[in-house]
Specification:
The complex is a heterodimer of chains A (480) and B (501).
Chain A (H helix, E strand, L loop, with lengths): L1 H5 L2 H20 L3 H28 L5 E7 L12 E7 L1 H24 L13 H19 L4 H19 L5 H31 L15 H18 L8 H5 L3 H17 L5 H22 L5 H24 L3 H32 L10 H4 L1 H16 L4 H7 L2 H26 L5 H4 L7 H25 L6
Antiparallel strand pairs in A: 1-2
Helix pairs in contact in A: 2-3, 2-5, 3-4, 3-5, 4-5, 4-10, 4-13, 4-19, 5-6, 5-10, 6-7, 7-8, 8-10, 10-12, 10-13, 11-12, 11-17, 12-13, 13-15, 13-19, 15-17, 15-19
Chain B lengths: L1 E2 L2 H19 L4 H27 L4 E2 L5 E2 L1 H30 L7 H21 L3 H19 L5 H35 L11 H4 L5 H19 L7 H8 L2 H26 L4 H23 L4 H22 L2 H32 L16 H15 L5 H15 L3 H26 L18 H19 L5 H15 L6
Parallel strand pairs in B: 1-2
Antiparallel strand pairs in B: 2-3
Helix pairs in contact in B: 1-2, 1-4, 2-3, 2-4, 3-4, 3-10, 3-13, 3-17, 3-18, 4-5, 5-6, 5-10, 6-8, 6-9, 8-10, 9-10, 9-12, 10-12, 10-13, 10-18, 11-12, 11-16, 12-13, 12-15, 12-16, 13-14, 13-15, 13-17, 13-18, 14-16, 14-17, 15-16, 15-17
Classes of the chains: A mainly alpha (480), B mainly alpha (501).
Chain lengths: 480, 501
């Protein structure tokens, strides 16, 4: 243990990416309880390594640790130097992502061991657990890879790996509905991936050395810089389910953690793109605002709890992108506030999804109209739901950040939207958790298990996340 | 430049194996299968030797104007690996066909004999330096495979085989025209140079007038393009691919159309850098091939025809890259040639496994939910599908990326855009087909049939090797970089009329 404590971030980066991947390989061949156990162990190892790494980053917050690993010879041409394409590195922004990804990843793995069981009223399932864990751990590994990416190329590779994993996980139950949702998610996000490839091609053609490094945007001609940025932005829109790609997420009802992770790419790009034109920022801001309002409108007609959460995820990713757009306009505080919200939203929405998951586990339905009075039967779930709702509602448009740089109009718009959404969540919570138990709820037997522990832990994390996140966010520079 | 017996031995070994099978094969089953597997193994061993000799530098010369450089080594190695896998796969597959009464045990002599003959001629194509012999060997491949296409000797097979023979032989005539044209022009404009040597083309072409060169390029593209299945010369491909026995479909799509691409790599890459028009012309042809192939593929219900149209589409990428004539372009074209051979053979073998298990069903509408009973086949199919769709971490991604970069380098952004569009359509088409066949709850025949089970190990091991290759090259593309780099270097050296390194 003492040897582990003395290891620096530099030594931990490779095992950190390797651990979940090895776990995924093992899980393919395992069944039932054994796969629960192995998956949890490997997720825990990843978490421990991540905490060790983050601790090291805290020791020197403005410092970047990087481990170059591989160059791609073919892109060097006949004689030229081969560009670096695989490099693990960590700085404050990476640490922020890494923390959220590994903590929530670990909690989700543990939660799944209880959720995927024959007792699940909505989806009684216990088979194919090994396959499920393999994809989940691969997903975790890919997200760790995104958080630790040292250049755009590697970011893209792991990003596409998550496309593959989310496709497999969304389609896990293999019924008509999940297959269609998985297909839609795969195709839409792969289209986004193509724009990322275009951006990579442009970087390769216009930079004279190390074309995929994060600072490449500052080294190319202004016109090319804008084009690259817009292509990356389109890729991020597709992955983060922004307009016009937002339709896949409500169908997939995917968990929010991976999705917020994609914003890492957007954040990287923004933090690395010094001197982008105001027009680009405007485009980014307007698209994000547009998405937020379309989604809020769709909110009011939803009866399916998970879809409501998915839509709310889209809106929150929109907030973060607005914050990034502010970053392009030069507001460091807005940018850092947005990044902070990645962490807060990751935890809060994770908690919401897990508590709704428990609702469906016990009652077999997730229609708001069929649920009422759950609070009496499942008090912890009710508590978790409200903690999650408060967490996601509070932070993002911390009015102080915005008002400095924005016209009051945008601030008011965002606040209005935020208030509507928060009110809606309270109303939903009120309907579902209070009142007289409905038919679906009445048959629930009280019990306590792993899932309860997980949501309590996550609720505690929600309350404390800012303690870790704020110092990290404050050290994320704008314009490299 | 080293004298070596290896090229001749590599052609000789499968040829002898073929003769042994034809003469002794009727006596015992073990004899024909054993000789085929043994011949395949020995060929693989010799290919590895050739590759090892070439990869460090230098080229090999042998009797009969045989010649081996980096490109030959690459293709020879690929061909021997895939053919060996196909032979291993054929043993249980063809025996099942005999049990089902689709053919007789005696005719298997012809089957294995022709496969080995095909392997010999294939090696000859890759190892000759003489343009006339290249043509002769290509015709040899056509003959050997045409007889395999109509192996079941039924109406559809004969029709497909007839179509295949007529179209490909006619097409290849154009390649012969081009050769003759260049030869006669060289006599006048470049006297004293060996005009039939592929490696000397780089020195001859700059001396020949533009009009003759362009005509020759056009003829080469028609000729070898027909063999490669390029639109609009692709009409033979879907019929012959779907009517042949499944292992032969893998052979046709994995290897035979690649010979056309190989011949184009030997010829158009030398013209392209001299004439911008050639680059654009090839890019237009290739893009048309990609688009038409993928649109036709979406309309298919027959799995083998679907894969055949995907071949038409994917060969477009290969030829486009070769046509660019730059380092990245040629590299990407060769890389995609290798990758397409791997994943398309894998896909055809997976479909063959489905046919094997279900008694010959190959329509998407007849199949549903097979994945639970046939997990290995399902995984192999999906790996092939995703690799062809160009998602990392599978091999198809790297070659497509290289091609996109090569296209961007030449500012052919429209070609890059078409390549990307086709890439996403391919992914959608393949995954969609995979969904229908393997996923979903088994509710109808044949998925509910209790007799349905995974194919025997001799079949899935080969598929597993190919699937693993897709993943390994995808995770670590540097693995085959030395080979591809040598191949690209050799091609570029010929057009620059310098010494082959």
């Amino acid at each position: 243990m003492s040897a582990l404590l003395q290891m620096s971030a530099r030594d931990l980066l490779v095992p950190l990416v390797a651990a979940p991947l090895i776990g995924a390989l093992l899980c393919i061949f395992l069944k039932r309880r054994l796969s629960d156990f192995v998956a949890a162990i490997f997720a825990a190892i990843t978490l421990v390594l991540a905490i060790g790494t983050i601790g090291d980053v805290f020791a020197n917050l403005s410092h970047t640790v990087s481990v170059p690993l591989a160059r791609l010879a073919m892109l060097g041409g006949e004689t030229g130097p081969a560009p670096l394409v695989f490099e693990l590195s960590i700085d404050a922004l990476g640490a922020l992502m890494l923390f959220i990804v590994t903590v929530i990843g670990f909690l989700v793995v543990v939660y799944s061991s209880a959720y995927l069981s024959p007792n699940n009223v909505e989806h009684p399932a216990g088979e194919a657990k090994g396959r499920y864990y393999a994809w989940l751990l691969l997903f975790l590994g890919a997200m760790v890879g995104i958080a630790l990416a040292g250049n755009f190329f590697q970011l893209f590779i792991f990003w596409e790996l998550t496309t593959l994993c989310s496709w497999a996980l969304i389609s896990h139950y293999q019924n008509e509905e999940s297959l269609r949702a998985g297909f839609k998610a795969l195709i839409m996000t792969a289209i986004g991936g193509l724009f990322f490839i275009l951006a990579l091609v442009l970087m390769y053609l216009s930079a004279d050395s190390e074309p995929f490094a994060f600072d490449v945007l500052s080294r190319v001609a202004p016109g090319v810089r804008t084009t690259i940025f817009v292509f990356l932005l389109i890729a991020a829109w597709a992955k983060a389910a922004q307009f016009p790609f937002f339709t896949w997420l409500p169908d997939a009802m995917a968990a929010p953690t991976p999705i917020s992770c994609y914003l890492h790419a957007a954040a990287r790009t923004v933090s690395a793109s010094f001197g982008l034109s105001y027009g680009v920022g405007l485009l980014m801001g307007i698209m994000a605002l547009g998405t937020i309002f379309i989604v809020v409108f769709l909110f009011l007609f939803q009866d399916d709890l998970k879809k409501i959460l998915a839509l709310s995820t889209i809106a929150h990713l929109g907030y973060i992108l607005v914050a990034c757009a502010m970053g392009i306009w030069g507001s460091t505080t807005a940018f850092q506030g947005g990044l902070l919200h990645i962490a807060a939203h990751g935890c809060g929405k994770g908690l919401l999804f897990l508590s709704v998951g428990m609702l469906t586990y016990y009652t077999g339905t997730r229609q708001v109209s069929e649920l009422s009075g759950v609070g009496a039967k499942l008090p912890l779930v009710a508590l978790a739901f409200f903690v999650g709702a408060f967490t996601i509602a509070g932070v993002p448009p911390l009015a102080g950040f915005w008002s400095k740089f924005l016209g009051a109009v945008i601030a008011i718009l965002l606040l209005a939207e935020s208030a509507i959404a928060f009110g809606f969540f309270l109303w939903i919570g009120h309907r579902v958790f209070f009142g007289k138990p409905s038919a679906a709820v009445a048959q629930v037997e009280k019990s306590i298990g792993v899932m309860h522990v997980v949501i309590v832990l996550l609720a505690i994390l929600c309350a404390t996340v800012h303690i870790y996140a704020i110092p990290l966010a404050e050290h994320i520079p704008l314009g490299m | 430049m080293t004298e070596s017996f290896l090229p001749v031995a590599l052609i000789g070994v499968p040829l002898i194996a073929s003769l042994v099978i034809f003469t002794l094969g009727r006596w015992s089953q073990r004899c024909r299968e054993g000789v085929a597997v043994g011949g395949g193994l020995l060929t693989l061993y010799l290919s590895v030797l050739i590759t090892r000799a070439i990869i460090g530098g230098g080229v090999l010369h042998g009797y009969l104007q045989t010649y081996a450089d980096g490109l030959s080594a690459l293709v020879v190695l690929l061909v021997s690996i895939v053919t060996l896998i196909i032979i291993g796969y054929s043993i249980p597959y063809m025996n099942r066909q005999v049990q089902q009464g689709k053919t007789t045990a005696q005719r298997l002599v012809i089957y294995y004999g022709l496969v080995m003959l095909f392997l010999a001629v294939m090696m000859w194509v890759c190892l000759t330096n003489n343009m006339i012999w290249l043509y002769v060997a290509l015709e040899g491949i056509t003959l050997a495979t045409a007889l395999l296409v109509c192996f079941y000797w039924n109406r559809e097979g004969l029709e497909a085989s007839y179509k295949y023979l007529i179209l490909v032989v006619t097409g290849l005539c154009f390649a012969l025209f081009a050769t003759v044209l260049l030869y006669s022009a060289a006599g006048q404009y470049a006297p004293g140079l060996p005009a039939l040597m592929l490696t000397e083309l780089g020195r001859i072409i700059p001396k020949i007038p533009r009009s003759i060169n362009l005509l020759a390029v056009a003829f080469f593209i028609v000729g070898f393009g027909t063999k490669a299945g390029l639109v609009p010369f692709h009409a033979w491909l879907p019929d012959s691919h779907s009517e042949a026995p499944a292992p032969i479909s893998a052979l046709l799509s994995g290897l035979v159309i690649k010979v056309g691409a190989y011949a184009l790599a030997r010829t158009i890459t030398i013209f392209a850098p001299h004439y911008n028009a050639v680059i654009v012309f090839v890019a237009i042809m290739a893009s048309a091939s990609m688009l038409i192939g993928i649109f036709m593929a979406w309309a298919q219900d027959d799995l083998k025809r679907l894969l055949a149209f995907h071949s038409v589409s994917q060969i477009g990428y290969v030829i486009e890259g070769l046509g660019f004539g730059t380092y990245l372009g040629v590299y990407g074209g060769l890389f995609h040639l290798v990758n397409h051979t791997i994943f398309k053979s894998l896909l055809f073998l997976s479909v063959g496994a489905v046919m094997y298990a279900t008694g010959g069903l190959r329509r998407i509408s007849q199949l549903k939910g097979l994945g639970r009973k046939m997990p290995i086949t399902a995984v192999c199919f999906f790996i092939g599908a995703v690799a062809m769709g160009g998602l990392p971490p599978f091999n198809g991604f790297w070659s497509k990326l290289t091609l996109f970069m090569a296209g961007g380098e030449l500012h052919l952004w429209w070609a890059v855009a078409i390549g990307m569009l086709v890439s996403i359509l391919t992914l959608g088409c393949m995954v969609h087909a995979g969904y229908k066949v393997f996923w979903g709850h088994p509710t109808t025949e044949p998925a509910t049939n209790p007799g349905l089970k995974e194919v025997p190990a001799a079949m899935w091991v080969g598929m597993g090797v190919l699937a693993a290759l897709c993943l390994i090259i995808g995770v670590y593309p540097q693995l085959i970089h030395p080979l591809l780099h040598r191949g690209t270097e050799c091609i570029l050296a010929v057009y620059r009329a310098g010494a082959v390194p």
